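Closing statement on the pyridoxal-5'-phosphate sub-project.
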Amino acid sequence: MISHNLQSADPEESLSPEATTLAKEGGTPIRTEPWPTYDKGDRLLVAADEEAALRALRSQRLFRYDTRPYSETEVGRFEQEVSRYFRAPHALAVSSGTAVITLALLSAGIQSGDKVACSAFTFSATPSAILLAGGVPVIIDTDDNLHLDVADLERRWTPEIKAVVVVHMRGFASDMEKITAFTKTRNIVLVEDAVPSCGVTLRGQHLGTFGHGGAFSTQSDKSINTGEGGFLLLQDEASLAKAAVLSGAYEGRVFHHVNQEDFDDCALPLYNFRLDEMRAAMAHSQLQRLREKVQRHRTIYDEVTAGISKIDLLHVRQPVIPGDGYLGHCLNFWVRGATVDQTRWFTQSLRAEGIDVRQLGDPEDTNIRCFWNWRFLGTVFLKGERLEPPGS
Ligand SMILES: Cc1ncc(COP(=O)(O)O)c(C=O)c1O
C-alpha cells in the first residue's frame, strides 16, 4: 500500500479524499492487518513446533542432563544442529541471550574489574551481561549508520580493555573486517552479540563466528522463538568446557560436551543457566525454517527500502557492505533535517496508519536501546562528557 501511494503518478488524482487523509487526522489507516510480531497477533509457530514440544513433554524427561547419551537428548541434538548450521566448532544452549554473553566473556577468562568495550546502540542486556561477568563496560559510539564506530574504539583504547562486545544491532552486521583486525592486533577477546541478527551472514560467514564467542537468544522477539532461551557459539573446546560448567553442568556432566578427562569441574562456580528439553525441541524445529525466514525478511525489506529510498526526506540505514549482512526484520531510517518534535509527529502519524514505529532518542519515550538511559551504570562517559538524555 505504501509503495502504491509512492508509485502513483498523481496521487491527488488517483486516490480518494479518504485515502489521502492521514489516519491521525481521521482518515482510514493504511494498514489494518495485525502487525507481524508474536505479541500483536501474528502466528509464528507451526504444527511441527507444537509436535516437537509435545514430544519432549511426553517423554517425561525435561532436564537436559540425565542417563541418556548426549545425542539422544533434545538439547544435545539442538546443539549439534546449531554447530552444523552456523559452521561453528562448538555450541552450548542456555536459558537466555544475556546468560550467553556472560558465559562468552567468562569462558574467555574475563576477570572481575576488566574493562570491556561495547556498542552504544544495543539493548541494555549487553552492558548488563558485562556487569554479570564482573567487567566494567566502556561505551563506544556508533557511526552515521548506527554501526559500532571503529575510529571511536581506537580513540578509547587502553590496555585495561580486555574484550570487545560488538553488537549486530537490529539485524545489521558491524564492520567485522575492521573489528577483527582491531582485536587481533591487540590480542584481546572478541564476543559478538548477534542476538538481533540470527541467521545473517557477512561475505558468506555467519555472524557469531568471527571471534571467541557468538551470542544468540531465542526469546519471543527473535528469529527463533521459544519464549526464553539462547545459544553460544564457541571456537575452542577448553572454553566450551568452562562455559558448560558455569552454565550448570555439574558432577561430571561437562563430559557430555568435552573429552578432557583432567578437567576440574569443581574449580568453577555453577550459575545454572541450563536450557530445558521442551524449549530445545521447539528451537530445533524452528531452526529448520531459519534460512527460509531470513530469505523472506530480506525480500520484503529490499522491496520496501527500494520504495522509501525514493523519498529524499528519508535516509535509510546502510549496511557495512552494500547488499550484504542484514536480516531485514527491522527498518531504521532518519527523517532528514527534522527536529525532534517534527520526527515525533511523523512517528505518531505512521503509528496511526498501523505501522509499528518508534523514534529512537525521543526524550518522551524511554528506550533502553539508548545508552543515556543505562543509569544503572552510574556516571558513564562518552566523548568525555557525562551521558544525558537529549534536550536536558
Ligand atoms: C542486542 C541484544 N542483546 C542481548 C539481549 C538479551 O537477550 P535475552 O532477552 O534472551 O536475555 C537482547 C534482547 O532482546 C538484545 O536485543
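The chain is about 35% helix and 15% strand. With this model delivered, the sub-project is considered complete and its resources will be redirected to Aim 3.
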